[in-house]
Amino acid sequence: MDKAFRIKLRWLILLSTLVRILFANLLELGNDEVYYYTYALQPDWNHFDHPPMIGFLIKFFTLNLHWVNTFSMRLGAIFLAALNTWIIACIVRRIANDRAAFIAAILFTASIYSSIISGIFILPDSICNTFWLAALYCMVLIVKPKDKKEQTEALLFLGVWIGLACMSKVHGIFLWLGFLAYLFLHQRSLLKNWAFYVSLIISGLIISPIVLWNIQHDFITWRFHGERVSLLDAGIQIHFFLQAFFGQVLYNNPLLCLIYAYLALAVIKNWKYHTQHCRKEIAVILYCGLPIIFIASFISLFKQVLPHWSGAGFFSIMILAAVWIDQELSLEKIRTVRKVFNGMLIFTLGFMILAVCIIRFYPGNPIGIKSGNELGKEDVSIEMIGWEQFAKEFEKIRSEDLEQKRMQENDPILVNKWFPAGHILFYVARPLGIPILGEGKLHDLHKFAWLNNMANPIQITDDAYYISPSNNHVEPYEIYGEDFESINLRKVIQQKRAGAVVRKWYVSS
Asked: Distance (Å, rounded) from C-alpha 418 to C-alpha 434?
C-alpha cells in the first residue's frame, strides 16, 4: 500500500479505536452482552442459541475471567473492529487500488453496525464478522489469483474461515452457499481443484461440534431458531418489514445507504453492461452478501427480524461501493466526496453521543411505560445503566439479612428468564459470590438452564432471593408460589436518572 494511504489508514483505525474505547467505558453492558458472559463462564461446543466462539473471545480478553469488567468484556469487539477495518481495506486493495481501500475503511468506520453495534458491544457478530471478511478476502484470491499456489492456499484457508464463521454465528453458512452458487454459475473449473474438496472437509470438521452437540440435545438450537424464522401460519406483517427496513437503514448509516441507493440505480440503469462486465471478484462477493439481505428482508414480511441479522451481508455492498466511488471519483468531485465522508463519520459519532446522553442523562423514560409496577417497560434507554448502583443497594440488603440470620451465605438468587438474569448474574451474583439458579421454562432460561449444573440444587428448607425489575416485572408468587411457604417483598429500590425515577427493582425473599 502507498505510504500516504497506509498512514491515513493507521490514523483512521487508531482514532476510531480510541473513540470506541471511550464509549465502551461510558455504558454498562446490555442484555445480550451480559448473557454472553455465560458462554465464557461455562464453555461448551455449542450453546442453546449460538455457537461457542463469542464465549472463547470473552475468555481470552478477560484473561480467563480473571479480569472481568465492562471494558474487558468489550475489548475483544473493539480489537476485532480495528482488525476488520484493515481486512476490508486489504480486500478492496486487491480488487482495485490503495485509494479504494481507504474509502472502504471509511465506509466501514461510518457504518453504525460495523463500528458500534459489533465494534463496541460484545456480540456473536463481533467475531463472526472477522471470519466473514477473511473468507471474502480468500474468495477474491481464489477467483483471480496471482498463481496456482496462491489459489490453492486460499482455497484451504477458505474452509478454515467459513468454519470459524459458522462457529461464531450460524449464518456463516451463507458464505459457502454463495461461493458454491458462484462456482456453479461462473467458474466451474475450480470444482476440479482438489483443494476445494479439502476445504469443504475442513469446514465440516470445524463445524462438527455444533452438529454433535445438537444431536445430544435433541437439536434444540435448530428448533429454537427454526421457530424464530418459521413462516407457517404467519400472515404478512407490513409493520415488521418496515421495522426491519428502517432498522437496516439506521444500522448502516442513512447517508451510507443513500450511496448504496445511488449505486443500485447506476447498476440498474446500465444493467446489461454491468452484468456482462462484472468483475469476478465483485461477483463472488455479491453472491455471498446479497442472499442474506434478501432472505432476512423476506422473513421480515412475516416475522419480527432484528436489523443486525443481515449486517454482514452489507459488507459486500460496502466493498462494491468503495470500488465504484474510486472509479467515479474525478478531481473536481474530491471535495464533495470528502464532505460526504465527513458527514457520514460525524453522523455515526453524533448518533453514539446522542445515545450516551439519553441513556445517562435523560430525565425520565423517553419511551415505554412511565408509571406503575411496569415502569420502564419497552424503554431500551435503561438497559445499559443502573445495574451497578442497584448491586450496591442489594449488597446492603443482603448484609443486613445475613447479620440478622434471615438468610444464609449460600442462599441463591432465583431467575426465570435469560433477561434480566444476565444482568443479575454479572452485576449482582458474580461480584457478591451468590449462587444463581434458573427455575422456569427452557425457552425462557436459555443458557441458564445449563448453568444450574454449576450450583447446588435448592433444598426444601432453603430460602432464596428473587429480583424483578419493573421493566421486566413478573410477580414471584406467579412463578414460585407453590414452591415456598411464604414470599415477602423485602424492598423496592428505585433507579433515578436526572432526578426522575425510571425503573424499580422489587427484591423478594
From this structure: 17
